[in-house]
Prior knowledge:
By secondary structure, the protein is mainly α. It has one domain. Helix content is 31%, strand content 0%. It is built from 2 helices and no strands. 0% of the residues are buried.
Amino acid sequence: MTAYFELLSDVVRLDRGALQIIVCDHANLLPDGWFQDAVIGNWRPDAEGNRTALIPLDWLD
C-alpha cells in the first residue's frame, strides 16, 4: 500500500500540484507525514456522529 500511495504522491508532485486525486479507501493507514499532509478530508462520521461528505449534503436539495 505504501508504494501505491507513494506513486500517487509522486505523480501529483510531478504535475506541481495541478492534479487532484481522490482515493476512496476504508482506512487512513499511513502515519507518514507526506501521507497525512495529503489527506484533505475523511468522509465518514466522526466520534460525535457528525457526518461530512465529498459532495455537501445541502447540494442534494
